[in-house]
Amino acid sequence: MTDYDYDIKKDLYNILGCLPNSSSEEIKQAYHRKILESHPDKNENSHQNIKIFHDVKAAWEILGNTDRRRKYDAKFKQIQLEAEGELIYANLLPNDLEETEDIDTLSYQCRCGNSYIVQKTDLEQTNCVLHIPCQECTFVIAVET
Questions:
Q1: In CATH, what class is 12-80?
Q2: Domain coordinates in residue numbering, the chain
Q3: How confident is the model at residue 3 (pLDDT cuts 50, 70, 90)?
Q4: Which superfamily, per CATH, for 86-144?
Q5: Which of 10, 41, 47, 137 could form a disulfide with 112 if both were Cys (CB 3.0 to 4.6 A apart)?
Q6: Bridge partners (DSSP) listed for residue 91
Q7: Measured in Å, how far apart are the chain's first and last C-alpha atoms?
């Protein structure tokens, strides 16, 4: 399965019965629980049970792999933000940002010509995504810490 074979609009965490901030071990436990609950050999082979079983397997293939999970999280968050009307210009990591004259801030150039300004103290948070608006236009950058 490639990273694009699965319907990105599906909430894989919900399929496994866990949350986006769940640890890898919690996701693994949720997968084992759900796969046993929906396995065709343990349940009647209804179309719905088979579909759930395949959804659980697909969710595990993505969320059980650190790199695929990170990519899924970014894409899923982008879809959620677009649904809320927020336009993401770029998904970045802290090292993608540039130093500014102000030692307390970093920046990233927007396509409108202006800049996104990020406070270095905001980057101290871990395992979150910061949404930084452009100072001029309606675009936002997402910085994964």
A1: mainly alpha
A2: 12-80, 86-144
A3: very low
A4: DPH Zinc finger (3.10.660.10)
A5: 137
A6: 142
A7: 27
